[in-house]
From TrEMBL:
This is DUF4127 domain-containing protein. InterPro entries: DUF4127 (IPR025394). Pfam families: DUF4127 (PF13552).
Length: 518
């Protein structure tokens, strides 16, 4: 039997990491497709790129809305330090951050029935020398700071044999820069440890502290071990998760909030290759199979014993052996270790059997695999419960899991179709095709700041993306009987990495029949 959402409709407050479509619009759409009432703070109180949001306004908004809500999904960095990116840049003292955190205790005391799902992000060690998402000095010293990060963790794990390398790495960075960078990490770690205490005391319902752009060795791994040790001491593992992820966590915790009181959603994981679980990731510290297990648990899901008993199929396109950045990659991604046509056959069979299927494409980071997209053309995309292929493998998996776990709760078919189509537009059409074409048409564009070329880039973006989106809608989604309203695409920030694709999907005449859900 389909799951039945609680009545009346759940009322959810969301304080997101920032205002990008995947971190704000996607979780809002996921909530609305289930009939939930989603409320977000005024846009001017939220962070915009590296400009911090306003914690004072967020505090007032939260205190004002809490009495009328059933659940709160909150990014700790936004609430306490102005946003996920600002938290890596601002100099606010720890005392100020902890004082802002106390609003959650105040809200819990006033409204003990409000379930609070909180998440924080361990400060990343960025893979590139980005001076905007990191401290400005990272543009010059990023490589040396990464070397220090690795050397520090290796010494922490392996002892004296690594001391010489650590000393050399420390000497290669100006003392004041290293002290500031490490100090920022320590402040944020202290915030997360305080959140663990709130979890232990029952203020928080569930807590995720995730790792953004992590690797086997580094300060993020060191922080993770400290968090795990504290979770051991407090005995909170039944309500705590720490794993590689970041931007997608609002979707995971929203799934927990909306499925409150229901049995855990059961997922059957179908990989594109028989060895898919062992595939290596670029921005995560573990193989694909362990990453999938972590994201299922974060969203409150459990593995199914068979496809027939599953609430949804999580169809994961893994690389043959390991992710690569440039398509096509014949050495580690498109290898004989997987067989994409057979994978698509299985997805089609699942759909024909009436199963809810959510596709997660993690073969390459930062966009869908173009070969997979060609094979998906024979799949009725509008019948998918979900689709995701954006940014890191963790971002993709968390989003796809949320789509699948919420499929049985869908009340608004137009909202669901709009959410799936939006991911196809962003993750496939833009990230895998148009973004590269726009970049090639510009004059030596900076990956960090387009400057005066932003207007040209946005004009090219709109001209190239809009007809592609219209074509995919006509071929795959128009048969639903729903109508598409298409806005003008533009960039979220002054860089090509994140686009904004305003669209709306609504009824056009009699309501269409929803596809089978189970």
């Amino acid at each position: 039997m389909p799951d039945v959402p609680a009545q009346p409709a759940p009322r959810v407050l969301l304080i997101p990491p920032d205002t990008r479509p995947p971190t704000l619009d996607l979780p809002v759409s996921l909530g609305r497709m289930t009939g939930a009432e989603m409320s977000v703070p005024p846009r001017e109180a939220l962070p915009d790129f590296f400009t911090p949001g306003d914690p004072a306004v967020l505090r007032g908004w939260l205190l004002d809305r809490a009495a009328q809500a059933d659940a709160l999904v909150v990014c700790l960095e936004t609430l306490c330090l102005g946003g996920m990116i600002p938290a890596r840049r601002v100099s606010d003292p720890l005392e100020a951050a902890l004082e802002r955190l106390r609003v959650l205790e105040e809200v819990h005391a006033r409204h003990p029935g409000l379930r609070i799902y909180a998440f924080g992000v361990v400060v990343r060690v960025a893979h590139d020398n980005d001076p905007h998402e990191e401290k400005p000095y990272y543009g010059e010293w990023g490589t040396a700071l990464r070397a220090y990060s690795t050397a520090f963790d290796r010494q922490a794990r392996h002892g004296a044999a690594e001391q010489e390398a650590l000393d050399a790495a420390r000497a290669a960075v100006p003392a004041e820069i290293l002290a500031d960078w490490v100090g920022t990490r320590e402040r944020n770690r202290a915030l997360h440890l305080e959140a663990l205490d709130l979890l232990h005391r029952g203020v928080l319902t569930h807590l995720c502290v995730t790792l953004d752009d992590t690797s086997e060795y580094g300060l993020a791994a060191y922080d993770r071990r400290l968090l795990e040790a504290r979770a051991d001491e407090l005995g909170v593992w039944d309500r705590f998760d720490t794993y590689p992820g970041a931007d997608e966590v609002p979707c995971a915790l929203l799934t927990r909030a909306l499925r409150q009181g229901l049995p855990p959603a059961r997922a059957w994981v179908r990989y594109s290759g028989t060895l898919g679980e062992a595939a290596g990731m670029i921005y995560e510290d573990r193989p694909a199979g362990e990453l999938v297990r972590a994201h299922l648990r974060a969203a409150g899901c459990v593995p199914a014993e068979t496809p027939a008993e599953a609430d949804f199929i999580l169809a994961v396109n893994t690389p043959g052996r390991r992710q690569a950045n440039v398509q096509p990659d014949l050495a580690t991604v498109d290898t004989p270790d997987r067989h994409l046509p057979a994978f698509m056959d299985a997805v089609l069979d699942d759909l024909r059997r009436g199963r809810a299927v959510s596709v997660a494409d993690i073969a390459y980071p930062n966009g869908a695999e173009r070969r997979l997209w060609a094979l998906l053309d024979r799949v009725p995309l509008a019948d998918l419960a979900g689709f995701s292929a954006w940014n890191t493998a963790g971002n993709t998996l968390g989003s796809a899991v949320a789509f699948g776990a919420l499929a049985r709760l869908v009340q608004d078919r137009a909202e669901q179709v709009g959410a799936v189509f939006a991911r196809v537009v962003d993750d496939v059409l833009y990230q895998s095709f148009v973004r590269r074409a726009v970049r090639d048409a510009l004059v030596n564009p900076s990956p960090f700041d387009l400057g005066e070329q932003r207007g040209t880039a946005e004009a090219l973006l709109s001209a190239q993306l809009s007809p592609r989106a219209a074509d995919v809608w006509e071929r795959h989604f128009a048969r639903t009987g729903l109508a598409l309203e298409w806005g003008t695409p533009h960039l979220a920030w002054p860089r090509l990495f994140t686009g904004v694709f305003p669209l709306g999907v609504s009824l056009a005449g009699p309501a269409p029949a929803a596809p089978p859900k189970g």
